[in-house]
C-alpha cells in the first residue's frame, strides 16, 4: 500500500521574543498509508496544527521532508490530491454557499458545468442544499464546518486533511461532522484528522498517532494502542496482617490500596503475601483508550505514576 | 488565466459587497463635486482652478484609497484565516497575490474614472468645454496608484498595515520631490542629502505620472511621453510585485 502522508524527521522552530526559539516539532516521522483513517491526537500545543500546516504548504519546515503521495509538499501540484479544512472554517461572510463552492471548483480546474452539479451534490451531502443561496455570514459554526468539508471534497481529493474539525462545536454539531466523516470513510478516501480527544477518533479511525511536544509518542492501530494497557499501573487492594505496606493508602478500617507498575506487580504481590497480607483485589488503574492516551501523555511529560 | 480571473472576481465581489466601499465612493464623488464652489473664483481662467483642484483631489483620494486597500489586503485575510482554503489548494501564492493586485487596481481605476467623469461634467457645465485630457490624467493617476499598490502589497507581507501605510506614504512623498527641491531641503545636512538622493534613484519618481499641470494650463502632452510613462509605471509594478511574490513565497502563514 502506498503512503498518503510521509514525513521524515520534520522539524519546525519558531522565533520567539528576545531572540529565543521555540521548537514546535521535534523530528517528526510519520507514515499514513493510502486508504487509512488516521487520527492525529495530542493535547493543545502538541504540534498537530504545525504539522498539518506544513503538509498543506502553509508553513515551511525548518528541516526534514514531507510528502503527499510521494510528492514533496513544497510543490503546489502535491496539493492537488488533498482536501483541507482548517481548525476554524473561515470564509468571507459575504459570499453565498453555492457561489463560493463554484469558485473553489473553478480554482481547482473543474469544468464549470461539472462544478455546478458537483457543488449541489456536496451541499446535499453535508445537509446545506436548502441554504445554498444563503450568505456564509448567516451560517452557524457547525454549518460552516460542514460547508468546509464540502469545499474540501469538491475536487474529489485522495486525501482529506482536517484540523480539529469538531473544535468549538456543540455536541450535536460534533456528532453531525463525525457522522459525515464516517460516511466518507466508506468511499476509499484517506482521512487524516487531528483532535485532542481520543474518544472522538475511537469509533472512526483505524490508525492513530499520538503526538506530544512535537514528538510522536505512539503510532499504530487502535488494537496496538489497547495493548498499551500493559503500561498502565495496577491498583492493588489488601488487608495487612500487621503494618501497612509502604506507599499504600488507607481506604477504610483495615483496608489499604497501592498503585504498582505492571513489571513490579508480581514482586509487590509476593511481598504482600510474605508480610501476611490478604490481597483483596488487583485491577488495572485505567482501562479506557482515553485514559491510556492521558497516561502516555503524562508519562511523556514526566508525570507521576508509581 | 481562469484561476486568476475567478480570484479577481471573488475579490471584487467581496469589495463591492462591503458597504464601506460604496459609502467611500459616494463621499469621494460628493467632495469632488465641491469643485463647483470654486467656480466664482475662476473669473478670467474659467475651469482652470477647478481642473487643478479636481485633479489634486482625485490624486489624493486615489492614493489613500489604494493604500488603505493594499496595506490591509493580505494581512486581513491572514487574520481572518480566509486565505487558508485558497492556498492549501494547488493554487500558487503568486497567483493569489496577482489576483489581489488586479482586484484592487480595478477598483482604483473604476473610482478614478467615475471621479474623472464627474470632473469632466463639472468643467463642461462651468466652462462649456470638454477636456478629454482629464480622463487621461485620471488614468495616469491610476497608474501611479497601481505602482503604490504593488509596493504596498510587498511591504504588507513584511510589516503591519499601519507601518505599510505610513512607509508607502513617506515613499510617495520622497518620490514626488524634485531634484532641486531635495537639494534645497537637505542643504544643511550632507548625510541626509546623500541618503535621499541615492534612495530617490531607486524608488519611482512619481511626478512623471502627474500631467495635472499640463491639463490645467492646456499644454500639450506628447504621446511619446505618455507611452514612456506607461512603460515606466509598468516596470515598477512588475518589480514591486516580484518583490512581493518572493517575500510571500517564503512566508509562514
Class by alpha and beta content of chain B: mainly alpha
Taking all residues together, what is the mean pLDDT of chain A?
A: 83
Q: Could you spell the SSE succession of chain B in H and E letters?
A: HHHHHHHHHHH
Q: Helix coverage percent of residues of chain B?
A: over 70%
- Between the first and last Cα atoms of chain A, what is the distance in angstroms? 41 Å
- How many separate domains make up the residues of chain B? 1
Give the domain tally of chain A: 2
How many helical stretches of chain B?
11
CATH fold field value of the largest domain in chain A: Rossmann fold
- Helix coverage percent of chain A: 25-40%
CATH architecture of the largest domain in chain A: 3-Layer(aba) Sandwich
Largest sheet of chain B: none
CATH superfamily of the largest domain in chain A: P-loop containing nucleotide triphosphate hydrolases
Rg measurement of chain B, Å: 20 Å
Structural class of chain A: alpha/beta
Query: How large is the count of helical segments of chain A?
Result: 9
Given the C-alpha coordinates, what overall shape of chain B results? Answer: globular
Descriptive report:
The complex is a heterodimer of chains A (306) and B (253). Chain A has two domains: 3-220, Rossmann fold (3-Layer(aba) Sandwich); 233-285, Dna Ligase, domain 1, CATH 3.30.1490. Chain A contains nine helices and 14 strands. Chain A has helices spanning 48-55, 97-107, 112-125, 141-153, 171-185, 198-202, 222-226, 262-274, 289-300, and strands at 3-15, 21-33, 37-41, 63-68, 71-72, 82-85, 159-163, 190-195, 207-212, 215-221, 234-239, 249-252, 255-260, 278-284. In chain A, the strands form three sheets. In chain A, strands 6-7-8-3-9-10 form a six-stranded mixed sheet, with helices on both faces. A four-stranded antiparallel sheet of chain A has the order 2-1-4-5, covered by helices on one side. In chain A, helix 2 (97-107) packs across helix 3 (112-125), helix 3 (112-125) packs across helix 4 and helix 4 (141-153) runs parallel beside helix 5 (171-185). The longest helix of chain A is centred in the middle third of the chain and has 15 residues, at 171-185. The two termini of chain A are 41 Å apart. The mean pLDDT of chain A is 83. By secondary structure, chain B is mostly helical. In chain B, helix 1 crosses helix 5 (93-127), helix 3 packs antiparallel against helix 5 and helix 6 (133-158) packs across helix 7. Chain B starts with a helix and ends with a helix. The mean pLDDT of chain B is 87. The interface between A and B is medium-sized, with 30 and 25 residues.
Amino acid at each position: 500500500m502506498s503512503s498518503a502522508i510521509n514525513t521524515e524527521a520534520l522539524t519546525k522552530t519558531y522565533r520567539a521574543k528576545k531572540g529565543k526559539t521555540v521548537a514546535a516539532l521535534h523530528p517528526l516521522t510519520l507514515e499514513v498509508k493510502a486508504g487509512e483513517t488516521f487520527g492525529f491526537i495530542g493535547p493543545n500545543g502538541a504540534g498537530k496544527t504545525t504539522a498539518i500546516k506544513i503538509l498543506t504548504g502553509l508553513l515551511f519546515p525548518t528541516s526534514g521532508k514531507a510528502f503527499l503521495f510521494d510528492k514533496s509538499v513544497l510543490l503546489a501540484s502535491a496539493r492537488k490530491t488533498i482536501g483541507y479544512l482548517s481548525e476554524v472554517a473561515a470564509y468571507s461572510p459575504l459570499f453565498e454557499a453555492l457561489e463560493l463552492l463554484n469558485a473553489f471548483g473553478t480554482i481547482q480546474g473543474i469544468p464549470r458545468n461539472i462544478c455546478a452539479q458537483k457543488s449541489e451534490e456536496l451541499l446535499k451531502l453535508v445537509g446545506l442544499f436548502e441554504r445554498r443561496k444563503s450568505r456564509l455570514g448567516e451560517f452557524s459554526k457547525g454549518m460552516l464546518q460542514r460547508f468546509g468539508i464540502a469545499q474540501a471534497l469538491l475536487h474529489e481529493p485522495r486525501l482529506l486533511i482536517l484540523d480539529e474539525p469538531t473544535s468549538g462545536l456543540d455536541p450535536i454539531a460534533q456528532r453531525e461532522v463525525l457522522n459525515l466523516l464516517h460516511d466518507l470513510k466508506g468511499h476509499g478516501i484517506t482521512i487524516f484528522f487531528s483532535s485532542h480527544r481520543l474518544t472522538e477518533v475511537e469509533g472512526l479511525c483505524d490508525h492513530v498517532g499520538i503526538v506530544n511536544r512535537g514528538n510522536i509518542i505512539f503510532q499504530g492501530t487502535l488494537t496496538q494502542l489497547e495493548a498499551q494497557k500493559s503500561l498502565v499501573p495496577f491498583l492493588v487492594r489488601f488487608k495487612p496482617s500487621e503494618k501497612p505496606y509502604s506507599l499504600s493508602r488507607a481506604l477504610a478500617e483495615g483496608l489499604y490500596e497501592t498503585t504498582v507498575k505492571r513489571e513490579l506487580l508480581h514482586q509487590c504481590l509476593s511481598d504482600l503475601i510474605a508480610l501476611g497480607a490478604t490481597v483483596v483485589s488487583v485491577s488495572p488503574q485505567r482501562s479506557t483508550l482515553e485514559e491510556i492516551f492521558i497516561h502516555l501523555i503524562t508519562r511523556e511529560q514526566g508525570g507521576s505514576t508509581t | 488565466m481562469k484561476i486568476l480571473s475567478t480570484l479577481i472576481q471573488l475579490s471584487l465581489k467581496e469589495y463591492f459587497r462591503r458597504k464601506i466601499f460604496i459609502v467611500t465612493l459616494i463621499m469621494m464623488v460628493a467632495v469632488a463635486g465641491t469643485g463647483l464652489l470654486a467656480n466664482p473664483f475662476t473669473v478670467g481662467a474659467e475651469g482652470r482652478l477647478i481642473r487643478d483642484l479636481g485633479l489634486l483631489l482625485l490624486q489624493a483620494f486615489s492614493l489613500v484609497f489604494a493604500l488603505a486597500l493594499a496595506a490591509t489586503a493580505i494581512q486581513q485575510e491572514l487574520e481572518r484565516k480566509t486565505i487558508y482554503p485558497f492556498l492549501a489548494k494547488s493554487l500558487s501564492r503568486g497567483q493569489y497575490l496577482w489576483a489581489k493586485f488586479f482586484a484592487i487596481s480595478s477598483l482604483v481605476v473604476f473610482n478614478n474614472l467615475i471621479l474623472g467623469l464627474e470632473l469632466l461634467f463639472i468643467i463642461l457645465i462651468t466652462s462649456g468645454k470638454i477636456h478629454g485630457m482629464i480622463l487621461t490624467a485620471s488614468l495616469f493617476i491610476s497608474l501611479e496608484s497601481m505602482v503604490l499598490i504593488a509596493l504596498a502589497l510587498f511591504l504588507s507581507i513584511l510589516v503591519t498595515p499601519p507601518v505599510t501605510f505610513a512607509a508607502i506614504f513617506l515613499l510617495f512623498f520622497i518620490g514626488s520631490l524634485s531634484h532641486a527641491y531635495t537639494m534645497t531641503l537637505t542643504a544643511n545636512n550632507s548625510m541626509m542629502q546623500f541618503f535621499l538622493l541615492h534612495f530617490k534613484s531607486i524608488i519611482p519618481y512619481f511626478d512623471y505620472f502627474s500631467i495635472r499641470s499640463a491639463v490645467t494650463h492646456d499644454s500639450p502632452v506628447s504621446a511619446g511621453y505618455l507611452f514612456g510613462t506607461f512603460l515606466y509605471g509598468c516596470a515598477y509594478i512588475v518589480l514591486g510585485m516580484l518583490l512581493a511574490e518572493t517575500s510571500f513565497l517564503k512566508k509562514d502563514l
